[in-house]
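agent> Task received from the user: take the single chain below, predict its 3D structure, and emit structure tokens. No templates, no multimer pairing.
agent> Plan: (1) validate residues, (2) run structure prediction, (3) serialize to tokens, (4) report one or two observations.
agent> Step 1 OK, no nonstandard residues flagged.
tool_call: predict_structure(input=
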Amino acid sequence: MKKVFGKVISLMLAAVMIFTMAGCSSSEPQEGTGSENSTGTAAEAGTEEGTDAETQAEVSSSGEKIVNIGVTDSLGGVNPLTIDQTWINKYAVGLQFLPLVDLDENLEFQPMLADSITTEDNQNFIVHINDAAVWSDGTPVTAEDVEYTFLRLASPVVGNPTMLLYAFEGVGDDGFVEEGATGVEGVKVIDEKTIQFTTKYPIALTTFENTYACYLHTLPKHVIEQFSEEELTTADWFNHPDVVSGPYRLTDYDVNHYITYTANTEYWKGAPRIDKLNFKIVDSSQVYSGLQSGEIDVTHHTMTAIPQEDYESIEALENVNVIYGSPITNQSVFIQTANITDAKVRQALVYAIDRNQILEQLMKGHGEVVDGFLSSASPFYDDSIVPLEYNPEKAKELLEEAGWDGSQTLRFYVNSGDGTFVNAAQVMVAQWAAVGIKVEVQTVDLATLMTIAGTTDYDLFAVQYTYAPVDPYPDVSWLLGGEGSWTGYGDDSVNEALEKTQTAGSTEEIKELYSIVDKKVQEDVPMFSAYIISAQGAVSKRLTGVNANVYGFFNNVQEWDIAE
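)
tool_result: status=success, residues=564
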């Protein structure tokens, strides 16, 4: 079976190139060379939303209600056809162009644009668009809109690899259809509101929903078809679209500083109560002061990397409520096995570091240590898998057995926007040095990190990665997908277990299959979890209706309000 490309939940996937956004805004992205290159605030960028008078959850002098969301990752782009699948990009697009469904706080798929997705054979998926769904110009959202968007995503001219649509009938193994295609065998319009997707092989309904339905941001065919396929990648229309299906419409952005939205008053689920919504892209060290001053009203568990040293200070703030998320965000360290070929060396890397100490000292215990991909938040988690202990002597033995001479310096790339892990990486480097492994840390911004991840020009890199607890299959399948994946690692027993998860009939059976995978990952170490994060989130006490969970955060954003 071909493996399906997974989606990142807090980052882009795979050999994904960083695509040029559809028409740059007022400034170009900064070169991400290290943690010293922190991003600024919207106020520093000089936007009207960035003034002190409008950077709080307040009713402005004009009577507008304004809310600011603090995030610490830079924006990759706003064009649904060319963006990567990081959380910030998913939400930046999803506020305007709804996905078909999205996960909610109960880890169930909530209808968004679609009101149902069903299958009888795990190969034919029937999607019904909500009868009430309309574009902001009053035109109904139709199955033809969905088909058109799919075909453009699969266009070799657009060339976006992040959806990897080769799972569907009629799509090439490269994930693309013919240039200018007007139809494809695997996507059939049944009626105005119903469309059928057909895959080449069985996949679980949850995988279809999590991998495709959550990331297919349907576009208005009656507006977009004016552009050629070449123009779709650069059209300025995407920078300020006038026809949307979601609760908000983009008005301006700067990839390193801000994204601003105005309410879609014609939103078919009800006009948003907040008139203006802003993403303030800041350095992690600025989150606490922003919450304290009211310049930041909301933080999100996966889009906002709050330094652990600020957790207690934020808890003490009188103007915010603090909510800790479930342990689902994995501080994953990926090892390029093409460069570190001996599993004994990879095991030594884990034995040499005290992950529990890092968790307690840097994360104040807000999380857990596991081996493999799954955390205790997943229904498929196997608590019988005991994480490799901190044992530097064992690490030295393994290195000696592997013939490690200590002369090689490993390159370890880290997201500069994650201040806590930048500190953790330094601790790890010192502990590795103690057993004879020299490691050099390179801190780069997220976009640069993802570009590097698309090559094999690294030995290790770390990034926060949220594996959907109900459907880790797409991500794990990709990450252990052999040559070209982030690990370069492949194993037949892993492949077999993963494929069986797609047709397994019970939770217990699926759990046993993922246990096979996690045990093999613990043995061969193509990746390891530095720790699993129970991330901190915060919401201003002046706000009501905010669903402060990792999943479902924006599902009902139209209900957010400012308390009178």
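agent> Step 4: summary for the user.
The first strand starts at residue 58 and ends at 59.
agent> Done.
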